[in-house]
Amino acid sequence: MTAIDPLATHQYRLEQLAAFMREAEQIFADWDAYSDQSTDEDGWPIDGYAYGMRAQRRDADTWKAFNRIRSSAKDLLTTAETQMRQLPATAIQPRWTYQLGRLHDALGQLALLHDDWRATRDSLPFSAGPGTAEYDDARAVRNGEAWSYLDEWASAGEALLEIHRAAQQTPPAPPAKTSAPTPAGRRPAGHSTAARR
Asked: Mean of the pLDDT values across residues 83-89?
C-alpha cells in the first residue's frame, strides 16, 4: 500500500483551487459582458426573463466549478493557518489573517446552504428529479444564495496560494538552543552536599 504524501496532496488541492479561480474569473467576465449588453442605460435588464435565466446559469456554473475544491476547502484553510504560524512575522502579509477569516465565514455559509438544499431536495416528491421545475427551482435558489460566498473564494482564495509560496520560499527556522542536561548522578560544580548541612 502506497503512503499518502501530505505535501503532494496539498499541492494537488492548491492546483484545484487555482483551476477554480481561473474558471470563476472567466464565468464572471462572461457575465459582465452579457450584463453590459443586456441592460439599459439605467442598468435595468432589457429582457428580465432572459436576464434571470442567464444569472441562474452563472450561479450554477460557479457552484459546479467550486465543487472541485468543496470537500477539501477546510483542509486548505487549516494547512494555510499552520503554514502562517511557522512563518517569520516579516514574511506575513497583514491582509492574510483577514482573508482567511473571510474564507472561513464563506465556507460556513456554503455548508449551511448545501445542507438546506439537501433537506429541501429530500422533501420533494419522488417524481421531482433533475429537469423538473420543483427540483431545478430549489437548486437555483441555493446557487443564487451561494454566489456571493463563491465569489469570496474566487477572490480571497489567492491568499492560500500566497501563503503556500511564502512557506516554500522561507527557510525553516533553526532549532531552538537548549542547555546541555546535567548527567545523572552528578551535581553542577560548586553544589556540594556539605553546603546544604
From this structure: 93
- CB–CB of 18/72 below 8 Å? no
**Half-sphere exposure of 85 toward its Cβ, with a 13 Å CA cutoff?**
5
Quickly tell me which residue has 488541492 as its cell: 13
Report pTM.
0.81
CA-wise closest residue to 38 among 27, 28, 51: 51
d(CA 64, CA 72): 15
HEC profile of 11-76:
HHHHHHHHHHHHHHHHHHHHHHHHHHHCECCCCCECCHHHHHHHHHHHHHHHHHHHHHHHCCHHHH
In this prediction, residue 20 carries a pLDDT of 97
Q: Give the residue from 26, 121, 116, 107 showing the smallest Cα distance to 71.
A: 107
Tell me the sheet residues that pair with 146: none
Half-sphere exposure of 53 (CA within 13 A, CB side): 5
Contact between 140 and 60 under an 8 Å Cβ cutoff? The reply is: yes
CA distance 44 to 51: 10
